[in-house]
Amino acid sequence: MMAQLSFLREIPTEGLLSLPQHREALARLKYIIASKGFGVMTGSPGMGKSSILRTLDASLDKSRFLFCYINDADLKPKNLYSKILYYLSVQPSTYLDRMKKQFRDAVVNLYDTHDRLPIIVIDNAQDLPIQTIKEIRYLLNFEIDAKSLLSLILVGHPELRDTLKLRSFEAVSQCITAHYRLSPLDEKQTYEYISHHLNLSQLKMLFPEDVVNRIHQFTSGIPRVINQICRHCLIDMESNQLELADHQVLERVLSEFQY
């Protein structure tokens, strides 16, 4: 009975359920790329931001775009340029001013020689240092002959959007082309989500509707938490040789998550 392919953190992108809010987020990110702009996607932890980024990456024409994914807890300006230069196959200098010139030259070369544009994605951007947020303005002002040669996407928790609204970052906030805040799943979507994941392991729906409603209530519709609860329910069912996740199964599992 155990669902080997269901409720995993990183299932293949083709196995992801296409929900309205995820389709909207993906559409906005693609618009940002098409317009060579600056975008922000926010959402609480576990809302599916990483899955959307993986889907975005998989959908890109690699002959036209270079996807640069950056996730660093200490992303000071030098670290930012160093990581971008790594994607651009350039050995970074130890001096920030020199790194900026390397960056400009490499992006121009990428465009002129290969007709490719970098897409710079910074994840967990709610933790960016102040000096790095201000540096974003100079990344965005990088233009040759009035043509922008890159797209920049910040991804993070809801407080990222609040931070960018601060007066000290007004110049950066004004440059935002599009922003999207991911919303949690409703009860119907939670049922659809669980059913979809079970289908990945060729299993029929093992969670009655009233149990799904309780799962939705407990998880607030956050996909990552739904995955955890359902996975533990399947383990409980396996150990107790049960065919359905009834309320007793669910309450045993929920008791492990309540501290």
Estimate the mean pLDDT confidence.
92
Q: What amount of the residues lies in strands?
A: 5-15%
Strand arrangement, largest sheet? 2-3-6-1-7
Could you name the ranges where pLDDT drops below 50 across 5 or more consecutive residues? none
Q: Could you tell me the number of beta strands?
A: 7
Q: What is the terminal separation in angstroms?
A: 29 Å
Supply the helix-strand structural class: alpha/beta
Which CATH architecture of the largest domain would you pick?
A: 3-Layer(aba) Sandwich
Radius of gyration: 21 Å
Q: Find the CATH topology of the largest domain.
A: Rossmann fold
| SSE pattern, N- to C-terminal | HEHEHHEHEEEHHEHHHH
Q: Count up the helices.
A: 11
Q: How many domains, as an integer?
A: 2
Protein name: AAA family ATPase
Organism: Dehalobacterium formicoaceticum
Domain ORC1/DEAH AAA+ ATPase: 35-164
Pfam families: AAA_22
Task: Give a topology summary.
Elements (H helix, E strand, L loop, with lengths): L19 H15 L3 E5 L6 H11 L5 E6 L6 H11 L8 H19 L2 E6 L7 H11 L2 E2 L2 E2 L2 E6 L2 H6 L5 H4 L4 E4 L5 H14 L8 H11 L3 H17 L7 H11 L2
Parallel strand pairs: 1-6, 1-7, 2-3, 3-6
Antiparallel strand pairs: 4-5
Short description:
Helices cover about 50% and strands about 10% of the residues. The protein has 11 helices and 7 strands.
Structural account:
- The protein has 259 residues and is α/β, with parallel strands linked by helices.
- The protein folds into 2 domains: 20-181, Rossmann fold (3-Layer(aba) Sandwich), CATH 3.40.50.300; 185-257, Helicase, Ruva Protein, domain 3.
- Helices cover 50% and strands 12% of the residues.
- The strands form 2 sheets. A 5-stranded parallel sheet has the order 2-3-6-1-7, with helices on both faces. A two-stranded antiparallel sheet has the order 4-5.
- Strand 4 (143-144) and strand 5 form a beta hairpin.
- Helix 8 packs across helix 9 (209-219) and helix 10 (223-239) crosses helix 11.
- It is elongated, with a radius of gyration of 21 Å.
- Residues 35-164 form the ORC1/DEAH AAA+ ATPase domain.
- This is AAA family ATPase.
- Pfam families: AAA_22.
